[in-house]
Design a protein that fits this description.
single chain; 200 residues; 74% helix
Length: 200
């Protein structure tokens, strides 16, 4: 099959998921988004599950772009020196990307995660994407010379993951309450909290 057209359909599936949600993902909607003849998406992805799989695989591919930025950060990657202030700026930039240029990909990914709650095979397919963030954030903490034990990497990762849906909805009162109305301040304060010594 034509790989360019296949990728065009996969990108269209992501756009439909982001705009219409999981219930709006149909072959006809993907055809319309990709501006291809009716039936094209069904020829490439015969069932809705294969369409979901195609979108999930495309999301995983797109995720590798920001993930590569993280992996190439810090002295270990020959990109030092690197400190806590630079890490805070990097994390703020990643959050801005999620709410800005990467918004379509992130919305589609969240829709896929909701679908995965009812489809074990899809959860298995998406699992490496989210799981990789824990190791990536531990790497960033180490690169910045900060404590990087598993508990700190978990706290950082879960806080960032939790921030993303709020950024996407953009509700002003919630953003202010969460400190997300100033992402530079948010990531600085988050790192300060992660750096605190454990008690007990």
């Amino acid at each position: 099959m034509n790989q360019d057209r296949r990728d065009r359909l996969r990108d269209a599936a992501i756009a439909v998921l982001a705009r219409e949600g999981g219930r709006g993902l149909t072959h006809r909607a993907v055809d319309a988004e990709a501006v291809v003849p009716t039936g094209t998406a069904k020829n490439y992805f015969p069932t809705r599950d294969t369409l979901l799989r195609a979108a999930a695989e495309r999301c995983a591919e797109q995720y590798r772009v920001p993930a590569a930025t993280v992996a190439q950060t810090g002295p270990e990657a020959g990109r030092g020196p690197f400190d806590a202030a630079q890490l805070a700026a990097l994390l703020a930039g990643l959050l801005r990307n999620a709410a800005g240029p990467g918004r379509t990909r992130v919305l589609a990914y969240l829709e896929l995660r909701a679908e995965a709650a009812r489809r074990t095979w899809l959860a298995t397919l998406l699992d490496p994407v989210a799981a990789a963030d824990f190791a990536a954030h531990a790497h960033l903490l180490r690169a910045a010379g900060l404590p990087a034990g598993p508990e700190r990497a978990r706290a950082l990762t879960l806080a960032l993951h939790g921030a993303v849906p709020h950024l996407l909805t953009g509700a002003p009162a919630t953003l202010a309450a969460a400190g997300l109305d100033d992402l530079d301040r948010f990531t600085r304060e988050l790192l300060a909290a992660v750096r605190e010594e454990e008690t007990g």
